[in-house]
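stage 2 :: seqdesign
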C-alpha cells in the first residue's frame, strides 16, 4: 500500500467499535428481536414437552406412594404450562421492551427448572436404581443459553439459579410426599449433572453472547451503530442506525467494493474521488435534498453514507398503492424535485438515478407532501461525466428512467439526463405506468433509445393539461438539445402551467390523514431505498 493510500485510509477508516467514548453494551436490536422470538418458541416447546414427559411417566412408570407426589407433579405441570404460555404471549406480542423481555426469560428459566425438577422426582425418589443418562434439568440449563443470549452475569444467575431449583424442589417434594430425603451419595448423583450443566452453560453463554457483541462491533460506523437492515440492492445495503451519543436516528447506505468494479479493490484515487463527491453532496443545502451527516470507508473496504432518517412514502409505493395523482399534485411534487436538482446541478453534480423509489413524500415538520430527493451518494461530477474511469465504471441507474445517451454511454450523460428522468417520473405519477415496459432491462433501454413514447394523455383516465403534457414529452426527447436545458428553465415552465385547482397545504394534509392516519407515531416509515439497480 502506498503512502497516499495509507494516509487516506487512516483519515477515513471506521474505528470498528473501539471508540472509548461510549459505554453501550447491548446486543444489536435485530439480534435481540430474534432472541425474543426464539424465547416465545421455547416457551411453547417447553409446555408441550412438559405435558408429554409428565403423562408418559404416569403411564409407564409404576411406583408406590401417596397421591401427594401426583398432586405436586400436577401442580408443577399446570404452573409450568401457564408460565410458558405467558412468556410465549409476551414474546410474540412484543408487549415488553427487548431487554426487559430477555431478563424475564432468565426468570422463566429458573421457574421452569423448578417445574421440571418436581416432575422428575416422581421417578427419581421411587427407585434405588442408579440414575442413567442426562436429566431434563441439565438439558434445559444447557439449551436455554443457546436460545437466549445474555451477559455473563445474567447467564450465571439463570444457570446457577436453575441448578439450585433441584435441591429446592426435592425439599418441597419430600415434604408433600412425606418421604425421607435420599442419601448424600444419591443426592450427589442426582444434582451433580445439573451443576456441571450450569458450568458448561456459562462457557456457552460467553461464546454466544460474544458472537452477538462482535456483530455489534462490526456494525459500528464511527459514532453510528447499525440496528436494522432495511433493504438490499445491486449497489449495497441500507441500514437503520442510531448515534451512540445523540438521540438521532439515521439511515446508513453501505456500498460494497465489488459494486464499483476494479476487482473489488479501493485505490487511493477512488477514495479521494469518493471523499470529494461526498463532501460536495454534504454541502447541498436544499431542504428537498436528503441530508448527509457523515461518510467514510469501513475496515473491510465498503464505502458508507450516513443520512437523515425520513418518514413518508416513496413515489413508487405511493402510486402503486393509491394510483395516479392529479396534475396539480404532480406539479407540486416536480417543483420540489427540481429545486433539489437545481442546486445539485449548479454545484456540478449529476444525480444519475432519479426515479420514484428515490423520491420520498411525507410529513416534514408541519408540512405535508414534502419531497426529499434521495441517493445523492451515487451522484457524479459533471466534469467527470465525460471522463473514462469514473468511480462507477458500470452503467449506473435504473433502465425504466434512463436517458438514451446514458444507456448508450454513461460518460455522455449530463444534467439533461436527470431532466429526462424527471420527465419519466412525471409520466409515472400522472399515468401509473412506465414510459417503456420492455420484457428485460436491455429491451427497455433499447426502447428509450429508439421508440417515441405514447403521450401520457392517451394512457391516463384523468385530464392532463396540454401544457403539462408538452413539458413531459419535451423532457423525454431523444436529443438532449431538444429538452429543457436546465432545472431553472423547467421550473419556470411548470409554474406557467394552468391548473384546474391548486394543490394546497390543506388538501395535502387531508390526503395524508385520510390515507395514512398516524398510529402511535409517524404517518408511515419508509427509509431511503437502494439505488443503483444498474443495467
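stage 2 :: out
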Amino acid at each position: 500500500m502506498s503512502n497516499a493510500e495509507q494516509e487516506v485510509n487512516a483519515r477515513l477508516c471506521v474505528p470498528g467499535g473501539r471508540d472509548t467514548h461510549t459505554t453501550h453494551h447491548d446486543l444489536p436490536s435485530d439480534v435481540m428481536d430474534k432472541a425474543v422470538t426464539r424465547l416465545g418458541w421455547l416457551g411453547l416447546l417447553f409446555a408441550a414437552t412438559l405435558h408429554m414427559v409428565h403423562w408418559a411417566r404416569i403411564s409407564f412408570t409404576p411406583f408406590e406412594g401417596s397421591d401427594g407426589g401426583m398432586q405436586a407433579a400436577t401442580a408443577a405441570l399446570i404452573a409450568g404450562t401457564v408460565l410458558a404460555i405467558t412468556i410465549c404471549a409476551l414474546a410474540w406480542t412484543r408487549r415488553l421492551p427487548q431487554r426487559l423481555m430477555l431478563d424475564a426469560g432468565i426468570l422463566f428459566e429458573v421457574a421452569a427448572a423448578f417445574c421440571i425438577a418436581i416432575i422428575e422426582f416422581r421417578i427419581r425418589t421411587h427407585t434405588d436404581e442408579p440414575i442413567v443418562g442426562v436429566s431434563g434439568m441439565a438439558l434445559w440449563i444447557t439449551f436455554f443459553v443457546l436460545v437466549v443470549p445474555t451477559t455473563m452475569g445474567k447467564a450465571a444467575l439463570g444457570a446457577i439459579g436453575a441448578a439450585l431449583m433441584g435441591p429446592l424442589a426435592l425439599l418441597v417434594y419430600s415434604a408433600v410426599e412425606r418421604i425421607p430425603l435420599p442419601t448424600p451419595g444419591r443426592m450427589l448423583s442426582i444434582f451433580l449433572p445439573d451443576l456441571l450443566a450450569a458450568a458448561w452453560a456459562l462457557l456457552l453463554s460467553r461464546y454466544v453472547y460474544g458472537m452477538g457483541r462482535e456483530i455489534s462491533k462490526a456494525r459500528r460506523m464511527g459514532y453510528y451503530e447499525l440496528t436494522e437492515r432495511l433493504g438490499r440492492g445491486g449497489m449495497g445495503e441500507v441500514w437503520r442506525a442510531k448515534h451512540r451519543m445523540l438521540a438521532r436516528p439515521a439511515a446508513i447506505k453501505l456500498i460494497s467494493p465489488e459494486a464499483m468494479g476494479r476487482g473489488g479493490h479501493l485505490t487511493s484515487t477512488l477514495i479521494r474521488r469518493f471523499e470529494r463527491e461526498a463532501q460536495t453532496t454534504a454541502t447541498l443545502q436544499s431542504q428537498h435534498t436528503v441530508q448527509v451527516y457523515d461518510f467514510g470507508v469501513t475496515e473491510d473496504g465498503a464505502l458508507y453514507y450516513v443520512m437523515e432518517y425520513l418518514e413518508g412514502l416513496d413515489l413508487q409505493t405511493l402510486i402503486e398503492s393509491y394510483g395516479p395523482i392529479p396534475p396539480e399534485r404532480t406539479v407540486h411534487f416536480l417543483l420540489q424535485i427540481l429545486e433539489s436538482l437545481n442546486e445539485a446541478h449548479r454545484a456540478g453534480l449529476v444525480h444519475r438515478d432519479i426515479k420514484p423509489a428515490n423520491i420520498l413524500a411525507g410529513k416534514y415538520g408541519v408540512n405535508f407532501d414534502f419531497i426529499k430527493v434521495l441517493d445523492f451518494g451515487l451522484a457524479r461530477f459533471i466534469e467527470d461525466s465525460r471522463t473514462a474511469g469514473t468511480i462507477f465504471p458500470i452503467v449506473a441507474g435504473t433502465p425504466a428512467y434512463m436517458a438514451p445517451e446514458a444507456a448508450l454511454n454513461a460518460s455522455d450523460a449530463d444534467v439533461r439526463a436527470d431532466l429526462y428522468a424527471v420527465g419519466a417520473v412525471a409520466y409515472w405519477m400522472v399515468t401509473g405506468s412506465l414510459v417503456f415496459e420492455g420484457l428485460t432491462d436491455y429491451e427497455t433501454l433499447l426502447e428509450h433509445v429508439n421508440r417515441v413514447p405514447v403521450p401520457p394523455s392517451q394512457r391516463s383516465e384523468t385530464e392532463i393539461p396540454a401544457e403539462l403534457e408538452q413539458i413531459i414529452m419535451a423532457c423525454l426527447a431523444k436529443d438532449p438539445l431538444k429538452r429543457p436545458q436546465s432545472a431553472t428553465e423547467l421550473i419556470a415552465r411548470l409554474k406557467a402551467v394552468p391548473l384546474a385547482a391548486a394543490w394546497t397545504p390543506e388538501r395535502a394534509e387531508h390526503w395524508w390523514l385520510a390515507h395514512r392516519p398516524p398510529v402511535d407515531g409517524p404517518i408511515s416509515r419508509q427509509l431511503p431505498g437502494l439505488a443503483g439497480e444498474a443495467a
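stage 3 :: structure notes
- DSSP finds 16 helices and eleven strands in the chain.
- The CA atoms of residues 462 and 510 lie 20 Å apart.
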